[in-house]
Amino acid sequence: MASSGSNRRGLLTAGGILSIVGGASEVTGGGIMVGLTIAHRELLTQVSPYPYPGIIWPISAGVFIFAMGIVAIIGGVSAMRGEKFGLSLAGAICCALPSVINGIMNLFGLSLAGFIWVLGGLILGIPAIIFISLSKKEFETGGEQSGI
Length: 148
Hints:
The protein is mostly helical. Helix content is 86%, strand content 0%. The chain is built from six helices and no strands.
């Protein structure tokens, strides 16, 4: 019985670490996307026949990915502390969600190179979701042990 509890605590820690690493890559990727779009806005506005739609899409996508990365990091920290199951699971989902969206976009031929990022997000995000889901009982017992 004791080994099962520590095994679940190990899964929870692993899920939190995966969520944090995935979230950090999303924050970095989203920041780079926004930064490059702003830096090359002259070129992007020349490509588009409209004044600003050439830069609106990459900036909004970068901000979305950045925000999902922040939630993934906060959820990963919450999972490692064993505090809030909902926040931890939301963080793990936010770790996987941008890569799933990018994968759907790749089906329409928008970016072949994006498949590497899709696989990276899924390799980190899906196990994080599974590990945190399997460790739900650790969240329920965490509050009772601390006296809350």
